[in-house]
Write a structure and sequence with these properties.
Elements: E1 9-12, E2 18-20, E3 28-33, H1 40-49, E4 56-58, E5 64-66, E6 72-74, H2 80-85, E7 86-91, H3 103-107
């Protein structure tokens, strides 16, 4: 399977917290709530120091960041099997229930 990366990306900062998909193909998209109205640059910095990552992030302004290329597994969930199969997307949102996502981020 040939992997591609989204052409919607406007910011890239590759995280050291990634690993091999171990031969798995992508058949899942996992969306995760960032619990912060974090810009794509903020997520990029976080994924340099916290042992976590996502393939992509969407900021409150709708910009898309890439932190792990699709050919690699991100460390987005606590389920390694899921991460080996998924393209993971961290989405900026409010930090408490109902975790509202701004329109620009939702549309992206």
């Amino acid at each position: 399977m040939a992997f591609t990366n989204s052409q919607l990306v406007s910011y890239t900062q590759i995280s050291p917290y990634r690993s091999s998909r171990e031969g798995h193909t992508v058949d899942t998209i996992t969306i995760h709530c960032a619990a912060a109205q974090a810009e794509v640059e903020t997520l990029g910095k976080l994924f340099q120091t916290k042992q976590a990552s996502a393939n992509y992030g969407i900021g409150p302004d709708g910009r898309v960041g890439m932190y792990v290329e699709e050919k690699n597994r991100s460390w987005a969930t606590s389920d390694g099997e899921n991460d080996r199969r998924a393209v993971t997307i961290e989405v900026a949102c409010e930090n408490r229930h109902p975790y509202k996502v701004k329109d620009a981020a939702y549309k992206a």
